[in-house]
Design a protein that fits this description.
Length: 388
């Protein structure tokens, strides 16, 4: 790709040498200044797909204040995008990280100190706009990352108010795991003849993820989880539906001797950041999370995703299991199913047009059943095979 030498060097140093399909398809039109609408499976490299064109433009243009804006749904994703930019920016100014849950002084200082890129969540950015702490009048590139998730979280009114103060003459890049009706409406209103990129099915797990489900009695659910954690080595992400459930389960696992942390919406930003950092660095082997961690986060080498509670929506199932098997690695996703969960699992299967193999776990036999299933899969899996 025709990138500045300094950017090529930094990409190579970070071992980014071969673009993923979404990067290869979307970077060239983005560098030509065209609007881009890209949908692709989670874990396919969308962050670099928009950061590379932004950095290329900032390197080749004289500084004119805040010129690029990336909107994301969660603080954690904003921090990851910000960190990725920092690793590649070279001599460009620091980016401004505009998120809630942390003191705003450093964020305001970055905006006033010549930041040319802001990575923001809609709520905090709208607050800054209302208090006239930031001006978006010179923004030339807008990125909507994980657009469907932002709309799911109720950010549509805030996004529309933010977009209303941006210059009409700008480039808009929209990256989403799905193209739901709400996203399509946003695209129609704010993008100009976007280059449409659709890679793979966004409503199916990627082939590198093996799927399995264990039917258990409600009283055996915790035992089955512990069995899976004992038998499956590696970093494990456990999803639950509620904040209270995350608290209870993480504390129970810690009492049982597992190095476990938790992340959910009621945790402070320092607590959430500490849990994620400890999980990434290996201090915690298990991270118990609500769906705040199901979108956008790239955590290296997650070997196993376990749905302790099934998600409410089929799309959330895709995003949860997409935390493993990323960037060409293989992963496993297990679901614990009890009672009426079997009806919900069938609904997920119908919506996603897949079949997940069930294993029935009888009372008191959770350990042996899980062990047999995992052993059988390890011995019979063929290269490239996905169990469904």
């Amino acid at each position: 790709m025709p990138l500045p030498a300094v950017l090529q060097q930094r990409l190579a140093a970070a071992q980014f040498t071969t673009p993923t399909p979404v990067q290869a398809a979307s970077i060239p039109p983005a560098m030509r200044g065209e609007d881009v609408l890209a949908t692709a499976q989670t874990g396919t490299g969308k962050t670099l797909a928009f950061l590379i064109p932004i950095i290329e433009r900032l390197l080749n243009q004289p500084a004119r204040g805040l010129e690029a804006l990336v909107l994301v749904p969660t603080r954690e994703l904003a921090m990851q995008v910000h960190a990725q930019y920092e690793s590649l920016r070279g001599k460009l100014p620091l980016a401004a990280l505009v998120i809630g849950g942390v003191p705003e002084g450093q964020q305001i200082h970055a905006l006033r100190s010549g930041a040319r890129l802001a990575v923001a969540t809609p709520g905090r950015l709208e607050d800054f706009l209302g208090r006239r702490l930031v001006s978006l009048g010179r923004v030339k590139i807008l990125v909507l990352d994980e657009a469907d998730r932002m709309l799911d979280m109720g950010f549509l009114p805030a996004i529309r108010r933010i977009l209303a103060v941006l210059p009409d003459r700008r480039q808009t890049l929209c990256y989403s795991a799905t193209l739901e009706a709400s996203v399509a409406g946003l695209v129609h209103d704010y993008m100009r003849n976007p280059v449409r990129i659709e890679l793979g099915s966004t409503l199916k797990p990627i082939d590198s993820v093996e799927l399995q489900a264990f039917e258990v009695a409600a009283t055996d659910k915790a035992e089955a989880l512990r069995s899976l954690l004992h038998l499956e080595p590696g970093r494990t992400l456990v999803f639950v539906r509620t904040k209270r459930g995350a608290e209870r389960l993480a504390k129970s696992l810690s009492r049982d001797g597992f190095a476990a942390a938790m992340i959910h919406g009621d945790r402070s930003q320092a607590q959430r950041t500490g849990a994620l950092y400890g999980f990434e660095q290996g201090r915690f082997r298990v991270l118990v999370a609500t769906d705040v961690a199901s979108r956008g986060l790239h955590i290296q080498d997650v070997a196993h995703v376990i749905n302790y509670d099934l998600p409410k929506l089929p799309e959330d199932f895709i995003h949860r299991v997409g935390r493993t098997g990323r960037a060409g690695a293989r992963g496993r996703a297990s679901s614990l199913v009890c009672g009426t969960d079997s009806i919900e699992l069938r609904s997920i299967e119908r919506a996603l047009k897949l079949r997940i193999e069930r294993k029935h776990v009888t009372r008191g036999a959770a350990v042996s059943t899980c062990r047999n299933t995992l052993t059988t899969r390890t011995l019979t899996a063929m290269p490239g095979e996905r169990f469904a």
